[in-house]
Amino acid sequence: MGDMGAAGEEFRIGSRDADRIPVRAAIEIRDGGRAMPAFAHDISITGLRIETRGVTLAAGDLILVRLPTAPCDLAAEIAWAAGRVAGAKFCQPLERDQVRTLALAMQPPKAFEHEPSLAFPIPRYE
Known about the structure:
Layout: E1 3-4, E2 10-11, E3 21-31, E4 34-43, E5 47-52, E6 62-66, E7 74-82, E8 85-90, H1 96-105
Antiparallel strand pairs: 1-2, 3-4, 3-6, 4-5, 5-8, 6-7, 7-8
Pfam families: PilZ (PF07238)
Protein name: PilZ domain-containing protein
Domain PilZ: 16-102
């Protein structure tokens, strides 16, 4: 049996689906020096699922990811991409405690938890 994740879901190392913790957070990614707003949908020790706004990433792209409360940007490689949604694999896996801390910081406020139509907008950077 695995540990419980930040969102109350079971958290198992080595299980691709079970170790993902659902999150909802606006994040920033950098690709070749340009900053782009994005949205995180889940996180694990090995990576996260992101959605971009108007930018398409491709498998093999190297990016830097800025997450809420993370002490530094995280280097990642796009493992797969389907339109604006992509899976990013961290170049250096995170510790379980780091993932829990980040996942807690990336949870929606209680008022938005059960209202999908009130999803957070991705901030626009000009």
